[in-house]
């Protein structure tokens, strides 16, 4: 399904272009990676965004595209295309049957379906690749390349144009990858993905993934920084690959493994590794900030050159900060199902801002204690900074899957208890909270003076991004939401479990 504006709605809009952007959208830009480039801050410079829309009447709906039945991913917008992961419960292509991970590519202008990556499930054990979860990872785009973590925990480099311009690159086994047998093999069409290269994280880095692979790839120069989703097995009491890396670095051109962490995180992982890395420059040095599945933030020196062929470097640690130093560090799985005490882990991303790291940490949402905090950490120190780098700690209501948004001296974050928090970025003092009445997994987005928040109860909230609480609007959506909103080129993209909405002010409501 694609809903487009009726003829004539935009005919009165006068496009005056200056430097490639329409006046009134001076900050308009693509969103090629989840969060602000490198720092991961959940903010956008987009302006003139919607605060009111109605999917039923198409008010301020530029277009809407149907997805599968579960969508846990966040939309990414780059080079005229929109990418989002979902499942195959509403097949776009009848050749692909059954449960699959899907990355869909749409035309940014009108929502027309362009092509899709189709990935079969990893195996019979549901804890390796959770049923119907699709592809939860957001894409990362640069030029004509799309980088994605599949539901099989593969790093896949794709041609942004799919098969429409032929089967490019060294990888030519797309049919085998989609598990087409000789009896069922089909000729490629323009709606099929074009794989350039694949790196199988479990097979080539020796990891053991759990539940659903989730990673937003951090791209810096020639390097891809990737969390590996290494975790427990189906008993939830054993790490099958305790020596496996939690953070790896690949060459963006070839997919070659270049570097890995050497922190022995594996034995301390309580559930899995789902937090993606961030980047910042501290005292002239480029650092990679990584939240391990052990509740510790690590800062590594970024790679400066490509290791020789056959060499895998060890990332140099600059500092480490234990976000929950009082929590148990050994035999962590003895605390399974303990809602009062146990280890912490980190699901949202660390955000680098003004030489500080902002990150949410706490007990595991499914198996651990209910405590959770928003931490502010001094990023300028070195070595083990657990006792020296904490600037402030703010207690959340419940477990947290959110990445914070820092804007104009305020930090906005959500938690699984359904609360939205507005906190002073310098002191950690709370200005306000709001109970949305539903569990929140998605991160907030701050853009155009607004805070956009979605919950799993189907509610879409718009708040004013200031110290005084102001609820601008609440809108009921068609299905629950777990993917964060994205703003790009004057459009707000909101994914529900079943549909992707591109929202834009109608001409008569626009400010020019």
What does this structure look like?
The protein is mainly beta. It has one domain (2-509): Methylamine Dehydrogenase, Chain H (7 Propeller). The protein has helices spanning 174-177, 201-205, and strands spanning 2-4, 17-18, 21-22, 43-44, 61-66, 76-78, 81-87, 100-107, 113-120, 140-142, 145-149, 154-159, 195-200, 218-220, 223-227, 247-251, 257-260, 278-282, 285-291, 296-301, 313-314, 317-322, 351-353, 356-362, 372-378, 383-384, 390-395, 405-407, 410-414, 419-424, 430-435, 445-447, 450-454, 459-464, 471-476, 486-488, 491-495, 499-503. The strands form nine sheets. The protein has a five-stranded antiparallel beta sheet with strand order 1-5-38-37-36, with no helix packed on it. Residues 1-26 and 507-512 have low confidence and may be disordered.
In short:
The chain has 512 residues and is mainly β. It is built from two helices and 38 strands.
Low-confidence stretches are 1-26, 507-512
CATH architecture: 7 Propeller
Rg for CA atoms: 22 Å
* Main beta-sheet strand count, sense and barrel state: 5 strands, antiparallel
The third-level CATH topology is Methylamine Dehydrogenase, Chain H
Structural class, please? mainly beta
The global form is globular
Q: What is the average of the pLDDT values?
A: 92
Q: CATH first level: which class? A: Mainly Beta
Number of strands: 38
The number of helical runs is 2
Instruction: State the helical fraction.
Output: under 10%
Summary keywords:
single chain; 512 residues; Methylamine Dehydrogenase, Chain H; 2% helix; 36% strand; globular; disordered N terminus
């Amino acid at each position: 399904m694609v809903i487009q504006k009726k003829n004539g709605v935009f005919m009165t809009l006068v496009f005056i272009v200056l430097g490639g952007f329409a006046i009134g959208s001076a900050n308009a830009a693509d969103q090629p990676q989840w969060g602000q480039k490198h720092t991961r801050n959940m903010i956008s410079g987009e302006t003139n965004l919607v605060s009111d829309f109605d999917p039923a009447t198409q008010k301020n709906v530029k277009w809407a595209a149907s997805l599968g039945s579960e969508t846990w991913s966040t939309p990414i917008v780059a080079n005229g295309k929109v990418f989002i992961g979902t499942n195959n419960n509403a097949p776009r292509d009848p050749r692909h049957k059954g449960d699959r991970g899907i990355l869909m590519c749409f035309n940014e202008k009108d929502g027309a379906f362009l092509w899709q990556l189709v990935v079969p499930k990893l195996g019979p054990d549901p804890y390796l690749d959770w049923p119907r979860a699709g592809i939860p990872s957001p894409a990362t785009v640069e030029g004509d390349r799309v980088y994605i973590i599949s539901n099989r925990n593969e790093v896949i480099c794709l041609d942004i144009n799919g098969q429409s311009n032929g089967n490019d690159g060294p990888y030519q086994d797309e049919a085998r990858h989609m598990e087409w047998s000789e009896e069922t093999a089909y000729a490629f069409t323009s709606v099929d993905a074009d794989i350039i290269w694949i790196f199988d994280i479990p097979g080539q880095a020796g990891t053991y993934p759990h539940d659903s692979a989730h990673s937003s790839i951090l791209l810096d120069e020639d390097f891809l920084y990737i969390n590996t989703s290494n975790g427990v097995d189906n008993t939830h009491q054993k790490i099958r690959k305790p020596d496996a890396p939690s953070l790896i670095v690949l060459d963006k051109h070839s997919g070659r493994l270049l570097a890995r962490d050497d922190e022995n995180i594996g034995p301390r992982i309580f559930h899995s590794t789902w937090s993606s890395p961030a980047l910042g420059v501290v005292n002239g040095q480029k650092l990679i900030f990584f939240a391990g599945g052990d509740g510790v933030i690590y800062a590594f020196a970024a790679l400066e050159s490509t290791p020789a062929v056959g060499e895998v470097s060890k990332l140099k640690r600059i500092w480490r900060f234990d976000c929950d130093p009082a929590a148990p560090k050994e035999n962590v799985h003895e605390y399974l199902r303990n809602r009062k005490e146990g280890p912490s882990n980190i699901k949202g991303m660390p955000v680098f801002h003004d030489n500080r790291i902002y990150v949410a940490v706490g007990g595991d949402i499914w198996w651990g204690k209910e405590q959770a905090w928003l931490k502010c950490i001094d990023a300028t120190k070195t070595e083990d900074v657990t006792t020296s780098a904490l600037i402030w700690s703010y207690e959340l209501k419940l477990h947290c899957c959110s990445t914070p948004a820092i804007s104009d001296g305020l930090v906005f974050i959500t938690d699984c208890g359904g609360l939205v928090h507005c906190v002073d970025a310098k002191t950690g003092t709370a200005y306000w909270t709001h109970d949305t009445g539903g569990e929140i997994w998605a991160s907030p987005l701050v853009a155009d003076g607004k805070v956009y928040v979605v919950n799993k109860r189907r509610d879409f909230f718009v708040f004013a991004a200031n110290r005084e609480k102001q609820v601008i609007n609440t809108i009921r959506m068609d299905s629950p939401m777990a993917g964060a909103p994205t703003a790009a080129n004057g459009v707000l993209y909101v994914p529900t479990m079943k549909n992707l909405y591109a929202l834009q002010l109608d001409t008569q409501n626009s400010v020019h």
